[in-house]
Amino acid sequence: MKQPLEKIKVLDFTRVLAGPYCTMLLADMGAEVIKIEKPGTGDDTRGFGPFLNNESGYFTFLNRGKKSIELDLKNPEAIAIIKELVKEADVVIENFRPGVMKKLGLDYESLQLINERIVYASISGFGQYGPYSQRPAYDLVAQAMGGLASITGHAEHPPTRAGSSLGDMSAALYAAYGVMVALFHREQTGEGQYIDIAMVDSIFSLLESNVMRYTVDKIVPERIGSRHPISSPFDIYKANDGYIVIAVANDSLFNKLCRIMGDPGLKEDVRFSTDRARTEHENELKAIIENWLQAYTVEEAVEKINEGGVPSSPILTIDEICEDEHTRVREMLIEMEHPVAGKMKILGNPVKLSKTPVVIKNPSPLLGEHTREIIEKYKNRTKINI
Predict the structure, then answer these.
(1) Which of 154, 157, 185, 228 is catalytic?
(2) Measuring CA to CA, how many Å separate 79 from each of 68, 93, 139, 374, 375?
(3) pTM
(4) How far, in Å, CA of 308 to CA of 259, rounded?
(5) Is there a contact between 101 and 72 (Cβ–Cβ < 8 Å)?
(6) Is 338 known to be catalytic?
(7) DSSP secondary structure letter of residue 325
(8) Could you give the domains of the chain?
(9) Which of 78, 122, 50 is nearest to 368 (CA)?
């Protein structure tokens, strides 16, 4: 079965997380991704744990299905090889600090003179222009500058980083989305284009109603823990042996919850008769719900609430979600055979396509594994000795 991006060739100048996750998504869909790595050490994440037989699990997950070539970007002959590769490439993706690729002569303006159909994506902390564009950034900086840290955590504690690298991951997703849009545009017009993705922009775009609460009502959202800013009950609640989530976002669901709790009159209480009123009296409502929950274990409460048609769940730990039957059925953990590490379980792809399902054919490459295979083709054309 053919994959949707089977004829697409990607030159991958990325490292660490945002860029490699983007190009991994393209490789999952069948693109030929050629990862250009620093000789001797390669991508920084080759040195990140956890390790299996001295191979990085971090790198293995992010770089599955790619080819690796070692090229020193300070070597003019390496640049010449890259420019030959560009002639046949469809996509270039990089995540250096703005200006680095221009100094190397590998920026969009230079490469589109070689191949006017090239789609070129740059991922950086603050974008390619703007007063902060030259600032260095990692995910924590993006979460802080993008506004997410200010609304994450509890009011009585300092701002908190979200538990996953959302700055990197959201930028990767937007970059992959941008590449798809640009390739579709190219199919219609024949022309490539440039894509500028900033981690801070990506985080900011995820703030949804928090931004609108400020722009419309001039309310500055604050840290409120796990509860929802405009709906209640929508929080984490204590049962008799642990914590559960209950998510009620409208009056109909609240009426159902009242019936489940055996207290249909609760919805007539003026404090809880509307979503806005419930949010204003959230602490009182939470006390009533948690008092009711003391008669149930987490498992019993979740089953009872779900059966009544109200969204509820336990709070799974990483080991629990990894071992969960739903995770297995959805193929969100897959086992790969790495030539050095051996069998390793890595995250699957969440995009489930009916006609062209994701097929992850190859593990992550060894450093420089495909250097000779790829470069030999171009040495004959250019008489380059590298």
Answers:
(1) 228
(2) 16, 16, 30, 14, 12
(3) 0.93
(4) 8
(5) no
(6) no
(7) H
(8) 9-206+326-382 (3.40.50.10540), 234-318 (3.30.1540.10)
(9) 78
Q: Are 126 and 135 in contact (CB under 8 A)?
A: yes
47-104 residue pLDDT tens: 999 999 999 999 999 999 999 999 999 999 999 999 999 999 999 999 999 999 999 9
Beta bridge partners of 91: 10, 119
| pLDDT tens figures, 340-365 | 999 999 999 999 999 999 988 899 99
Indicate the residue type of 125: G
d(CA 80, CA 54): 34
203-226: string of b/e by CB count within 10 Å (b at 16+)? bbebbeebeebeeeeeeebebeee
Count of CB atoms situated within 10 Å of the CB of 373: 10
- Dihedral of alpha carbons 123, 129, 130, 132, sign: positive
User: In the block, which residue shows the tokens 């250009």?
Assistant: 36
Cα separation, 346 vs 362, in Å, equals: 13
Distance in angstroms (rounded) separating the CA atoms of residues 153 and 223: 6
Residue 374: enclosing H or E segment and its boundaries?
helix 371-382
Q: Which amino acid is at 87?
A: K
Closest to 58 in 3D by CA, of 330, 323, 347, 324: 347
Report the run of H or E that residue 110 belongs to, with start and end: helix 108-114
Question: 41 with 56: CB under 8 angstroms?
Answer: no
| Residue 119 phi, psi (nearest 5) | -105, 125
CA 82/CA 71 separation, integer angstroms: 9
Give the tokens for residue 228. Answer: 């929802």
